[in-house]
Specification:
Elements lengths: L21 E2 L8 H11 L1 E7 L12 E7 H8 E4 L2 E4 L11 H18 L6 H7 L9 E5 L5 H9 L4 E6 L15 E5 L13 E7 L8 H11 E17 L18 H14 L11 H7 L6 E10 L9 H20 L1 H7 L3 H16 L6 E10 L6
Parallel strand pairs: 6-7, 6-9, 7-8, 9-10
Antiparallel strand pairs: 1-8, 2-3, 4-5, 10-12, 11-12
Bound molecules: S-adenosylmethionine (SAM).
Length: 387
Amino acid sequence: MQGTYDDAWPWSPRRGSDVSYFSSSSHPSDADDELDDKMSQADTVEREEFAGDGGSGRNSSSLSVYSYHSSVDGSAILRDIHGRTFNNTSDNYMLPADVAEHDRLDLQHEMLKKKRGGLFFAPQAVRRALAPRDGSRPSILDVGSGSGSWVIEMGRQFPHAEVVGLDLAPANLRSYRTPPSNCRFECDDANLGLLHYKGCFDVVNASCVSLGITNYRKFMDEVVEILRPGGVFLTVEGDMQIYDENYNPVSLANEGEPGFTYTVRLVGAILDAMRAKGPGIDAYPKIYDWLQDQGNVWRDIGQKFLYIHIGPWEDGMSAKDKQISELMRQDLLRLFQSAKPLLLSYGWFEETVDKWSAGAEEEFKILKNKYYVRWLSRWAIKPGQTT
Ligand SMILES: C[S@@+](CC[C@H](N)C(=O)[O-])C[C@H]1O[C@@H](n2cnc3c(N)ncnc32)[C@H](O)[C@@H]1O
């Protein structure tokens, strides 16, 4: 298997009474390096499994032991395609799940955090929902948690809360980013339903995951169910469309046509290939309208568009904006690499994809185009208050 997934644990099989997952609370942090060593030497590691309360995780002190064997379980949850490692459970989501992609997601996470000024919008509602209280422990779910950065940072920011990251593939838990004891990760497909979590969470985050959600509208109905009263739903999605310096969408042009750029051509090809994988990629523009359609299940909804320069092409940009624009430029360059297997599977010749990627890279290097990427942030707050 390409890419080491010795660090590709923990993971859990299906839910229900046999739900099993790893909680870092059960692993002393100083044991993590030792465990990594064990995995690479013996390819086997013991880990804890919780008896499960339907997946709510509220009984995360009841332990049993689950034995993970990476050479067997690893191939069940991960597969190689065109030299990159992918999840092995969903055909809809076809971006890699390897260290290179997780590094890209970390970079994107830093960029969004800087642009937003924190880990989330609607800070008052989020802090209210996660305030310490008697009776129940505040809980957070990150659907499509990717590398795990948001989960880990939320765990640090809200040490009294429990944070669960759910993803098709294991997070990137290298020893330098050992999660705090209130975080855990589950391997699962959100398309199989979330209702086993009914009433379990105060915040549900879904960042850049719509591509992998087959029925986003249904997913939103389930989010309402799994949130407690006063709970907050947070989403952010990057627009698969390039915007010009006047914030207008740039039309796709083919080579030889006026206005052709490699950047827009490549993004257009990626969008087509994603569309061929399912309806998820066309859901994100509709999320705000769907939140409104859901009606009085929400007390308050909001949205904010963030336009981020691709590279520091504008005069007079602040140091912070320059830094954010550099992260955007790097993020896109790496996305082009991550999307290569998708483009090849869709039917493009490798030489075409490589030519477009090299062309886009050159455009980025010389800041040929004055382009933005638009990010769509939405949030919604459930009525009531958890006591
Ligand atoms: C683009 S990444 C975003 C990761 C993270 N939320 C972030 O913003 O950095 C999308 C993640 O969602 C996961 N994903 C996609 N479809 C999913 C599904 N149906 N259920 C669970 N996870 C899913 C992918 O495996 C991937 O890790």
